[in-house]
Amino acid sequence: MPQMGGDWTEVQTPKEHVITGFHWSPDSKKLSYTTENWELWVFDMDTKKADMVLKSATGSPANYDWSPDSKWIAYVDGG
User: How does pLDDT run across 35-52, given as a tens digit for each residue?
Assistant: First the structure.
């Protein structure tokens, strides 16, 4: 059962996405996740769509997190 009540929502990502980490947005409307292909994605729970935020050439995005208002993601992409 969902933590705050309500219905279950199935999150489907493309088959090629092997998820290596994830963070819920503070408002629980979006889920950010990283893949083994060094990508950072955001899945919108309302539209059921995922958008790539970052494709790193230097390694998996690290230390990423949401702003308190759920509008922004801060991340480190270094090499």
Answer: 888 899 999 999 989 999
